[in-house]
Amino acid sequence: MTDFTIAPERAECADAIEALHEDAFGPGRFTRAAFRLREQGPHDAALSFVALSAAGELLGSVRMTPVVTGASGHHGYLLGPLAVAVAHKNRGFGRALVRRAVEETGATGTARFVLLVGDAPYYNPLGFVPVPKGRVLMPGPVDPTRLLVHPLGDKAVPGALAGMVMHESRSTTTPAPASP
Ligand SMILES: CC(C)(COP(=O)(O)OP(=O)(O)OC[C@H]1O[C@@H](n2cnc3c(N)ncnc32)[C@H](O)[C@@H]1OP(=O)(O)O)[C@@H](O)C(=O)NCCC(=O)NCCS
Questions:
Q1: I need a surface site. Which of 28, 40, 78, 158 has the fewest CB within 10 A?
Q2: pLDDT tens, 31-83?
Q3: Which DSSP state fits 105?
Q4: Name one GO molecular function term (predicted).
Q5: Does residue 36 fall inside a structural domain?
């Protein structure tokens, strides 16, 4: 197993992460609903993580973007893109990145959920469950079976999830503690 560390994303990782996304998703990534949401505003670098080898090589990356749900105004995060370098797949880096990002997001105490668009068989064991069909809208078409949520705190689902998901910067509400 490659020796690796998970660390918060730093600005100097940006080019390597972009190259990783190009390799993993290709140009089609720009048309995805999750991308459309992410282009509404910046990701949160403090809750976005990279997996690095002992030599400092980028092995994988996960980003977290602050979002709100339209009707409720509840705050959460959109997880993604998650990508692992082709040469380093199936060594646990992807799961380690997701676990760390979810754990740190939960520790903020203000986010009620982590949402993502992805493959349920990969994310189910990491605590993600399907969003009830029709409950939330993304800014683009999404296969409803791929819209998954990880609750944070005890009030997260289903109450906090309703309506259009948008970048937090478009919201007029401020984050409130997720738990009493
Ligand atoms: C998906 C991805 C992030 C997984 O990262 P990884 O570090 O290779 O995966 P892990 O080592 O954490 O987990 C490997 C396990 O997940 C499984 N797995 C990988 N991708 C999967 C998928 N899309 N659906 C279901 N299972 C998947 C592997 O078969 C393996 O199963 P095993 O443990 O039973 O052998 C990586 O393959 C990748 O970058 N893919 C291209 C981009 C992408 O699809 N991102 C996710 C969008 S949903």
A1: 28
A2: 788 898 999 999 999 999 999 999 999 999 999 999 998 766 789 999 999 99
A3: H
A4: acyltransferase activity, transferring groups other than amino-acyl groups
A5: yes
Q: Whose CA is nearest to atom 35 of ligand 1?
A: 90
Number of domains observed in the structure of the chain: 1
Residues pairing with 165 in the sheet: 69
How many angstroms does the Cα of residue 156 sit away from the middle of ligand 1? 26
Tell me the two tokens of residue 108: 């903020």
Atom 5, ligand 1: residue with shortest CA distance: 94
Instruction: Please check whether residue 160 lies inside any domain of the structure.
Output: yes
In a domain, 53, yes or no: yes
Residue 180 included in any domain: no
In 3D space, the residue among 116, 179, 103 whose CA is nearest the CA of residue 149 turns out to be 116
We report the CATH number of the domain holding residue 80 as 3.40.630.30
User: For residue 92, what is the DSSP state?
Assistant: S
Distance CA 129, CA 72 (A): 20
